[in-house]
Amino acid sequence: MANQIFFGSFVHTPALDSIEYLHDTVVAVEAKGTILTVESLPPIGRHNPLAWIRTTLVPSLGWEANTPVTATRPGQFFFPGFIDTHIHASQYPNVGIFGKSTLLDWLNKYTFPLEASLRDLAKARRVYGRCIRKTLSHGTTTAAYYATVDVPATNLLADLCLQAGQRALVGRVCMDQHAFSPDYYRDETPEEAEAATRACMDHIARVDPEHTLLRPVLTPRFAPSCTADLLGRLGRLHKEGNWPIQTHISENRNEIALVKDLFKDIVPPSKGEDDGMPSYAGVYDHFGLLTPQTILAHGVHLTEAEASLIRDRGSKVSHCPCSNSAITSGAARVRWLLDRGIEVGLGTDMSGGYSPSILEAARLASLVSRHVAMGGEDAAKLSVEEVLFLATVGGAHVVGMGDRLGLFRPGMLWDAQLIGLGVVDANGNTGTGAVEDPAVAATAASVASADTDQTLNEDTNVDVFGWETWEDRIAKWLFNGDDRNTKKVWVNGRLVHDRSAPNFGVTPPATETAEKISP
Amino acid sequence: MANQIFFGSFVHTPALDSIEYLHDTVVAVEAKGTILTVESLPPIGRHNPLAWIRTTLVPSLGWEANTPVTATRPGQFFFPGFIDTHIHASQYPNVGIFGKSTLLDWLNKYTFPLEASLRDLAKARRVYGRCIRKTLSHGTTTAAYYATVDVPATNLLADLCLQAGQRALVGRVCMDQHAFSPDYYRDETPEEAEAATRACMDHIARVDPEHTLLRPVLTPRFAPSCTADLLGRLGRLHKEGNWPIQTHISENRNEIALVKDLFKDIVPPSKGEDDGMPSYAGVYDHFGLLTPQTILAHGVHLTEAEASLIRDRGSKVSHCPCSNSAITSGAARVRWLLDRGIEVGLGTDMSGGYSPSILEAARLASLVSRHVAMGGEDAAKLSVEEVLFLATVGGAHVVGMGDRLGLFRPGMLWDAQLIGLGVVDANGNTGTGAVEDPAVAATAASVASADTDQTLNEDTNVDVFGWETWEDRIAKWLFNGDDRNTKKVWVNGRLVHDRSAPNFGVTPPATETAEKISP
């Protein structure tokens, strides 16, 4: 990796309710992927930005004269990479397949059989490989993954993330509660579950000792899947290295009743609950699993007392609107969570959610917040800026990297995407693909200038007419954008997806084409 | 136009709760676009379908030996064209731009200024041209369009639909209520509104006298926009030729209160209403506007008495889930409407809805039905088959063409789309594009057979692994499909969109490139 310069328009969300547009801006990224400087082009450089970068900026940094420069075309912009705070890589082949099920029958009918089948490593490679490539193509630079119970398949997921260059928390699923795990797919004992978890942690320590991309995450599937013994072991394991934890909470009303029933004789009643029973959050807290490193998926039906407890512990919530609507779990009250001081990010929750896209999760977070508002809480509505904040900065905090990810700031990592909306500028430049050198842009613009409306030639679902403000363009991207608008994706400064390259710039795993489909 | 043969897999929804898969099937389409026969390939023809079609079927029809044959590749299928029962072509540039507004402020802030600006015909051509191309690319073969108040711009929309080959109901918007229409955009008098409406009807009669593609539709914007005089005139105009009518009903609670207030001294109290006031449906009925030819958009908050009235009058409802969620109108109870015997189709309602896609409307109809179910009505959930029925057969009934559109049946019109999901078959055939002749398919398959997983090479958001059932594939298409999966689109047997052709097979209007952008 070499040092790099990025130039042009940058858009990010410094706070929940604000979006910042940095135009004519230069971002210098060091070889290790860290942003060194973010600065506005001085007036003296505006006539010929490339010349200024080469003759003034690069020498002042002490970088080589041939440092590569990537510039946005007119209408394009850099945006922070999306962070998927809750995604089951192992369920990826089932996206869209959920019928009319709800959580507990969905698990047994669709989910457990598929997850179990991934102990076939050839199948796991195919599923995980495609999941990583698909989410990268949608701009997901960091994912908090659930794999399966299987150790080799989970390790394979880690290897494939490393190979593809996607930042990931990789979790081996723990589930030893025989009553609620199928006999064909579970940990037989708490001891085995802990040992298998440690094996996956050791693997990640071996393949990525500096944690440049990978971190292990302790993954009790959800309370009903785990014995008290196992939950206690995972709580103690967390303390050993302050490891991240991910699990589900309060997704579905039947699930909540089940948790109370399972733990009522094990966990004391939780403070502030009306029913004299332990709360769902109280169960996790009892076992030391509510920590600042904990990602709680869903949190649809949390009580006030649970929200207070979660806030006090500093745990985070992954909001998964696509899943919550699709499998009829409920409408999570994101504004309510935020107002209580809880940090929130977005998750696709494939395959409870059907979409691999965090942009779609943001879109659906907007819609679901309006369904909450229809219940009478008009303030519940989330704005364009707010859902984009959740998709980036919010997610960064949820995965414990709020100081390194989500913004274009010195010291942050260059995990970013180049977005193009097919904007036609005054010169007829449709802005397909970034240019490596601004000088190229001038040529492209003059070639295209004979035609002032070329959108038919670019394949995008976002239709920009040219008169829109930047705010309008961002709204159009949020509501009609898809992977076609994500032109390039970088993680740690490395280009990991490029729509303009053959095969999208992705080298398929060498063994994949030789493998047979294993149904 | 010549006679044509289509061969392969056909999928449609003969009833609300059923989907039918017709494989190895031949559909013969006459030059005028009508389906002559739908028949299963006999066993004797299966070894070499093309030969059987050419040597047995074509001669038996008395058709020319060189009759063109279009066949699905493995995994592809023909599906009826989508019917958009409620779409404001004039609002297309505003998709995604709605902030936190609700209906009445949204109209004043975003909608009226844009609609008014389309009296600039160069701008109208650009907006309408792109709207038609975009919706065709998403498989919309029929659209019930709202244009604007302006006659020449409305006539231009009709002309452009005819040119592009999209079937359309084209409505000039009537709005003469000065109190609720801006002074810069309205009909000054009821007489002018009626005359302008007649002018647009005359234009359609001139350019498409046989109504092969176009029909005029009487379009009182919604009750608050119209005087009683105008509503009465439109009711009488309907009777002259049994013309279709489209309007809005019961979208938003403030709107309903406004209607009652505006018409309480004009329209008698409606039967069955608790408040002793006219109901929204009662207002339309009073003026003769509730007819079997009437399309009522939204119907979110209808009362039991209104539903009975609508059912008795045979009027239809256009369900617009994207819009209803986006501008916080409410969650329409589709099951409740269907159970009351009301026919329902889907509408994008751009730009209250942000998406040009009826597939997305179907997807969101599924989600919204689950939000209704979360309120306690578990039976409210709509299945995959049900929302696809609404998108096709349901829509056909709503636009008054249930006997000609929505199914692959003799006597129906060939308004259809070819869907490809990037399925990899046993020979490694990824199924990009249909083949005009099955002989070509064999060659393509053998070329591709070296690679059993080519999905990286095809640009699709639907990821099919190969082991899915047809039911699963349809669900995957519904939930992750987009315009990339709509390979070709036909209306009246004419190919009107082709993704594999340069410029998607669409010839841009000759004058477009020469026009300046008028913001």
UniProtKB/TrEMBL annotation, chains A, B:
Signal peptide: none annotated. The keyword Iron does not apply. Residues 79-496 form the Amidohydrolase-related domain. InterPro entries: Amidohydro-rel, Metal-dep_hydrolase_composite, Metal_Hydrolase, Metallo-dep_hydrolases. Keywords: Hydrolase, Metal-binding, Zinc. Its cofactor is Zn(2+). PANTHER family: GUANINE DEAMINASE. This is Amidohydrolase-related domain-containing protein. It comes from Sporothrix eucalyptigena.
